[in-house]
User: Fold these one by one.
Assistant:
Number 1:
Amino acid sequence: MKKLILIAAVTAAALAGCATKNYGRQGELTEFEKTSMTCRELDLEMAKVHGYLGHVDKESQFDGRSVLSFLGDFGMGNIMEKNAAMEAANKRLAQLNAARAAKNCTASQ
């Protein structure tokens, strides 16, 4: 009986580790991008970042992986992953806005 409980605990821990969601990251705007991107390209890139933020928000909703990850780390891994992904995307968005301002881009460009 103890062996069965041990196997169940190890299996639950393994599944919980696999259940942590991974969103990837948005990279910082490079100096080359800042200088070479046109206003239109900056707008397109901002649209991509907004799409990524929407994807992260949608994927972070409660589902089966959330239940499994809760068993391993009380859901902290998913929260940390979402926060890091959102922080990276918001930082890129701020950099894109700064590049737009530096190039004097308007809403119609």
Number 2:
Amino acid sequence: MEVAKRAAGFLATGEGTKVLDIGSGVGKFCLIGGYHFPETTFYGVEQRKELYHFARAAKDLTEAKNVEFINANFTQIDFEDFDHFYFYNSFFENLVADGQIDQQMEYSTSLYNYYSRYMLNALDSKPSGTRLVTFHSLEDEIPPSYQLVDATVDFLLKMWVKR
């Protein structure tokens, strides 16, 4: 919970800020961020319908007013609609032989590369000052235009700002 709170605090830069969680799962990051930073709206995009429904149920239960969930592949989302981004390495399951959330999706190294390249290009098109937080990232999706500005001691949680 502390990781999510710290990440959300870095991304919640003021009134009306829109933060996108790429691969939001059951919505933990968005719900924690929404609770602690009510001036910011947190959006989660999740392609798995079941996880999306769990996230929506949690949102309804907590009555979060500044949290929204979208059931889609992140490549269907317009990054221009958001100010800052959170990424907890949701592409990694494409690189391992086991450990995937389920077997309902296609997994491959080429899909990992496609998603990483797509995200890199989308982030690179954002204006200077755009913030990104990564957790357990291999950094394949981070453009060279983003500068590391803070990290936890173990370097698992990293905070970036586009120059």
